[in-house]
Amino acid sequence: MNLMEINISAFRAINDLGKQFAFLDPVFFFFAEYTVYLLALAVVIYWFTRKNENRIMIISAALSLLIAEILAKLAGFVHANNQPFAELSAVHQLVDKAIDNSFPSDHTILFFTFCLTFWLFGKKHRLIWMILAVCVALSRIGVGVHYPADVLVGAIFGTLSALLSYAIVPKAPLIQRLLALYERIELAVLPRKDKERSL
C-alpha cells in the first residue's frame, strides 16, 4: 500500500464515522466551523488583560502563524491536491467549500500555532487548548474537506513554527520596544483602571 492509499484509507476511516454515527455530524461541524470564533475571542481577551506576558504570547502566536503559512505556501508548490469531496466518491461532506488546493490545512495550522503557543506560555487550561487543536484537525477530515496528510502536515508546520517563534519573540528587544510604544499610545487612549483582572 503506497502513501496515497494510506492517506485515502485513513480519510475513509474518519470521514465514514459520520455515516455510522449520526450524532458525530454536528460535533464535526461545530469544531470545523465555529471554534475559530472561540479562538478569536480568546486572543482578544488575552490581549486586553494588558499583561505583558499575554501580549508577548499573542505576538509570538501571530508570528508563528505567519511562518507556518509561508511554509504552507512553499509546500503547496511541491505538492497539491484538491479536497477529498472533489477527488473521491461517496464523501460525507458537511460543509460547502470552493475546490482548491487543500494541502496543508490552514485551519490546522491556525489552531496548532495558537494553541501550542498557549501551551508553551503555560496558560491555564493549556491541555484543553491542545485537545481543541487536535479536535479541529480531525473535524476537518470528518466534514470531508481535508485528507489526514493535509492536517498532519498542517500540525507539523504549526508546531515547528510555534516552537521557533517561542524561542525568538520573548527575547527580542525590538518586540519589547514596539510593544512598549503601543502600550504608551493605548494608555493615552484607554487609561487603565486601578485593578484589572488578569487571566
UniProtKB/TrEMBL annotation:
TM stretches of this protein: 27-49, 56-78, 103-121, 128-145, 151-169
Domain of life: Bacteria
Record has Acyltransferase as a keyword: no
Single Gene Ontology MF annotation: undecaprenyl-diphosphatase activity
Coiled coil (UniProt feature): none
Keywords: Membrane, Transmembrane, Transmembrane helix
Keyword S-adenosyl-L-methionine appears in the UniProt entry: no
Pfam family, one: PAP2
Matches recorded under InterPro entries: PAP2/HPO, PAP2/HPO_sf, UPP_Pase
Limits of the Phosphatidic acid phosphatase type 2/haloperoxidase domain: 61-166
PANTHER family, A to Z: AT30094P, SPHINGOSINE-1-PHOSPHATE PHOSPHOHYDROLASE
Protein's UniProt name: Undecaprenyl-diphosphatase
Lineage start: Bacteria, Bacillati, Bacillota, Bacilli, Bacillales
